[in-house]
Amino acid sequence: MSVFALPEGSYTIAQDKVFVPFNIDTDDMKDRPASLLIEIQPFLIELKNDLLLCDTGLGYLNEQGEMTLFKNIKRHGFVPENITKVLLTHLHFDHVGGAVQKTLDGLQLSFPNAIYYVQRGEYERAVSHASKSYRIEIIETLYHSGKLILLDGDGKINDEISYEITGGHTEFHQAYTIKNQDEIYFFGGDVLPDLYQLMRKFVAKYDYDGKTSAEKRVEFGNRSIEQNSILLFYHSIKVPLCKIMKTEVGFRRRL
Ligand SMILES: [Zn+2]
């Protein structure tokens, strides 16, 4: 197994775009009206010559003052310095919060040896359109680090990693396909954040273009079956990753 989910816990999010920790055992959704319950879950993928991080979580610290993301990476036998590529789907705070860390010298990259990737259009939209979903100080730290590569359109980073603009969630949101000798992984970010969104027809209010997201999910579902790929779900509470199949009633998890 060369893929690891790095769960940061469950949160609710409402119109105000604030992520409030949610304890499945003791909290009740009745107390959080008009909120969405989600997990925050970056992925680590080990390739022959690369250690990839797929999105970076919220960047919150645990009780010991350590970033939960760092702790999760260490749990699998790595350190942040080992990460060689950070594959960002888009720049919303819950996907890039862990990309940088606070130090005495201000914000610094969390993964000093990594190259970070995002679409140029996503960067330009984020810095020119005020939105509660973006934290400009994080995005500018990435931009001025000299380690952020702005991608234009669809393409390949190398023989193992390709990217494609999906639109839908944000105008320039992108997805990644990663192949190693044994498996193909598909990371659809917030266009394919959860298995249940594949199982039910679902148009999300939080999307820039919910209809496109819904259509893309079907396309990605069909492609995943064709390629026998493993889907990685960034916001799934129950199933972080799985293969799928199709039945008369739609997509299902393949056991
Ligand atoms: Zn988002």
Distance between the termini: 16 Å
Q: What is the name of the CATH topology?
A: Metallo-beta-lactamase, Chain A
In terms of per-residue confidence, which ranges show pLDDT below 50 for 5 or more consecutive residues? none
CATH superfamily: Ribonuclease Z/Hydroxyacylglutathione hydrolase-like
Global geometry: globular
Bound molecules: zinc ion
Q: Major sheet: size, sense and barrel closure? A: 7 strands, mixed
SSE string:
EEEEEEHEHEEEHHEEEEEHHEEE
Number of helices: 6
By DSSP, the count of extended strands is: 18
Oligomeric state of the chains present here: single chain
Strand content: 25-35%
By CATH, the architecture is named 4-Layer Sandwich
CATH classification class:
Alpha Beta
Provide tags for this entry.
alpha+beta; Metallo-beta-lactamase, Chain A; 18 strands; seven-stranded mixed beta sheet; 255 residues; six-stranded mixed beta sheet; binds zinc ion; globular
